[in-house]
């Protein structure tokens, strides 16, 4: 794997998915396997009660600089300022909204949230650490 790191100034062309939050292992950060009662990390073996699962931001973007297109994923609390809350708090809001609206897909982000994220990011230029 190439260990060269740098900065890339690029504009966001599109949001690649509508799920901006995922249940994450607090030790090693991959997606947790959740069932109705428990969570399990397949990487490190961490387990616990589903209600105690932590959440983390994951925003997949298609970006363009002056020469190329790139697929990039931004993780973690660097996105807190853009969303205005931590991933944990946004997850609670989404769960409450889905429960009130009768949404059965627990991974679904409300359409208004997807539109807000698109408005915030698409067409804007950012500096990415890659």
UniProtKB/TrEMBL annotation:
One of its GO terms (molecular function) is DNA binding. The keyword DNA-binding applies. Coiled coil: none annotated. Belongs to the replication factor A protein 1 family. Keywords: DNA-binding, Metal-binding, Zinc, Zinc-finger. It comes from Aptenodytes patagonicus. GO terms for biological process: negative regulation of intrinsic apoptotic signaling pathway in response to DNA damage. This is DNA damage-induced apoptosis suppressor protein. InterPro entries: DDIAS, Euk_RPA1_DBD_C, NA-bd_OB-fold, Rep_factor-A_C. Pfam families: Rep_fac-A_C (PF08646). PANTHER family: DNA DAMAGE-INDUCED APOPTOSIS SUPPRESSOR PROTEIN, DNA DAMAGE-INDUCIBLE APOPTOSIS SUPPRESSOR PROTEIN DDIAS. Residues 9-95 form the Replication factor A C-terminal domain. One of its GO terms (cellular component) is nucleus.
């Amino acid at each position: 794997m190439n260990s060269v790191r740098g900065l890339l100034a690029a504009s966001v062309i599109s949001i690649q998915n509508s799920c901006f939050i995922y249940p994450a292992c607090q030790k090693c950060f991959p997606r947790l396997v959740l069932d109705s009662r428990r969570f399990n990390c397949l990487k490190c073996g961490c387990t616990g009660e589903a209600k105690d699962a932590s959440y983390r931001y994951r925003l997949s973007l298609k970006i363009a600089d002056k020469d190329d297109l790139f697929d990039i994923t931004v993780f973690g609390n660097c996105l807190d300022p853009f969303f205005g809350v931590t991933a944990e708090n946004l997850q609670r809001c989404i769960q409450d909204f889905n429960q009130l609206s009768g949404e059965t897909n627990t991974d679904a982000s409300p359409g208004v949230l997807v539109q807000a994220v698109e408005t915030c990011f698409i067409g804007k230029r950012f500096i990415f650490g890659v």
